[in-house]
Amino acid sequence: MISHLERYAQVAETLGRHGLGFVFGQSGLHRRAPRLGTPDGHEGHTRPAHLRLALEELGPVFIKLGQALSTRPDLLSSAYRDELSLLQDQAPPVPAAAVAETLERELGGRPEEVFASFDPVPLASASLGQAHAATLADGTEVVVKVRKPGIVEQVDLDLEIIANLAARAVQHWDAAADYDLAGIADEFSTTLRTELDYLAEARNAERIGASFASDRGMHIPRVYWETTTSRVLTLERIRGIKVSDLDALDAAGIDRRALASRSAQSVAKMVFEDGFFHADPHAGNLFIEPDASISGGRIGLIDFGMVGRIGRELRDTLAELLIALSRRDSRAAARAVADMSAGRGRADLVRLGADLALVTRLYQDRPLAEVPIGAVVRELTAAVRRNRLQLPRELALLLRMLVMAEGMGATLDPGFQFAAVIGPYAEALAYERFTPPAVARRLAHAGGELLDAAARIPRQLHAIEDALERGGPELTLRPEDLDRLTVHLDAAAQRIVAATLASAFIRGIGEIVAAEPQGRAQALRRALVSAGFASAATLAAYLAWTGRHRRRP
Hints:
The structure is a single chain. This protein is of the alpha+beta class. About 60% of the residues lie in helices and about 5% in strands. The chain has 22 helices and eleven strands. It has helices spanning about 5-15, 20-25, 45-60, 60-70, 80-85, 95-105, 110-115, 150-170, 175-180, 180-195, 200-210, 245-250, 255-275, 310-325, 330-340, 350-360, 375-385, 395-410, 420-430, 435-470, 480-515, 520-550, and strands at about 115-120, 125, 130-135, 140-145, 220, 230-235, 240, 275-280, 285-290, 300, 305-310. The strands form three sheets. Strands 1, 2, 3, 4 and 6 form a five-stranded antiparallel beta sheet that branches. Strands 5-10-9-7 form a four-stranded mixed beta sheet. α20 packs antiparallel against α21 (about 480-515). The protein is globular. Mean pLDDT is about 80; it is low at about 35-40.
């Protein structure tokens, strides 16, 4: 196993040889690896091409990093994304003896003992693992993915280097801080470690399979848990025509227009109904099984290592953005984008709104179902990048997946309108915010925030008073000024009490409306108790405060 210092030297030498030694310089880590490589003088290569070549030379983890960055239009320009998309996650296979040793250690037997047949020549070999064809005792065809020996140690070392580079770069380079490079590195580390755990991928496959269990037009491979561990994954083998092989699809009599529509519907279901989606639906992961009873054939989906999740908070913010765009309200769109973005400073809403006006023009006199998704994503992410903001990983995955799905639909049927299929789902998401349960949920949340704020105000007033009594800022006030100030403070305190009572009422109404019918009586009791405590505490603080001031001479 290579030492940390030797690996740092390898990384520095490779980056320097491709004219990227400034990365180490900006990170402040050049002292660890002082021998930076000399640019190799390949004038024919562009800077993005040099980056791709350097990542390829540095191996699996850096290739994965490049692939991840190629999906982030909010971080990189199209020139870099296009170049990094050429990175191939391929690697020489490990010897059959090493695979057999792993299977014996994980499954308790040699390949020929565990499976009725096992092909030692892999179907595919990637950086983290390789896949082998096999059959179970009952004749079922399966694919067995085996994690490569020693890959965890290599991943740990390279992730540590990437994390150190990012953390130090944030301290020495404003752009790295603006884009939260350390956060991106941490996010990448989490994602890659998840990919190393085949149990996580198995759970992903099973969850998506359960969602489409009643859909005969979708084929999600079954997980065979008896021969699955964190290092070995056994899935039902799916055979079919690659979705990109148009000639083969035509020869099989596949209705490509129907296939494009059903593919888009499956994407919309995962995103807008399930909130859990396959985030890498490229052509290599989609196989079409001809079936005369299903228009467009059965869609087989494989490789569940990369998935996305749309949580409640992201759903709400997405809804706000969709509503703002459909109303061509660039300022509201800017607020929604700023709310969901990360960055070192606060977004300039005026500038961001002006940039997003380009996106809203795409909606000019057009319903949501006719909007070109790819164009919207390009303009949106360009605006985010110009304002040095960063989209959350889940949203970046979603946007990438939608663009990929739209491109696949256009390949299958050049006249296909992807937005016509997902538009109704998006509109339903947007206006879901106005349903009674959604309104009640937001009211309850707002009421809770008001109660918290009201509870803090008396303490803050006392803090200001104490600071003044300890000789804080000197104020020159005439007696009549002090009287007026006391009146204003008294009125403000009364408004605080009223706001507290109102917020308690709002929160209580929200909890009651949001509750199931059989639980509304209990919700009412909780709301009354909460309102009573909050009101009593605020009234007590108000009376104590006014009492102290009225006792003063």
